[in-house]
Amino acid sequence: MEGFHDKKIKRADLIVKNEAGDQGMPLAGDLHFLLIDHDKMSSDDQMCQFQINTAFVGANYVCLNFNDIDFKIGSSNKKKHFSPDFKVELFFAEVS
Questions:
Q1: pLDDT at 64
Q2: What is the three-class DSSP state of 36?
Q3: Contact, 51 vs 35, CB < 8 A?
Q4: Is the residue at 20 inside a domain?
Q5: CB 18 within 8 A of CB 11
């Protein structure tokens, strides 16, 4: 039987919320995303990171493939935990 830690991460769902907990906040300029594995059994792990600039967002959509994502955080490389098919898709919407 394959253990949980033997599986490669293929998908991670993200919801960006503001400090009040509401979804939908204005974003502009340089954005830095840090994906953290919040673990109930051990300490939280920083898994990967990426940066984008909103000036380059076309049609309210950005797709980052495996090679566009930085898996090296500090001295550890988390790339082995992710499937080579892993990608990040960001969908943006107008907020008022």
A1: 93
A2: strand
A3: no
A4: yes
A5: no
Is 58's pLDDT higher than 80? yes
In single-letter form, the type of residue at position 5 comes to H
| CATH number, domain with residue 14 | 2.60.40.1110
d(CA 56, CA 30): 10
pTM confidence score: 0.71
User: Is 47:73 a contact under the CB 8 Å cutoff?
Assistant: yes
Residue 37 sits at φ, ψ, to 5 deg, of -90, 100
Return all residues near 11 (Cβ < 8 A) that are at least 6 apart: 86
For residues 46 and 25, what is the distance between their CA atoms, to the nearest angstrom? 24
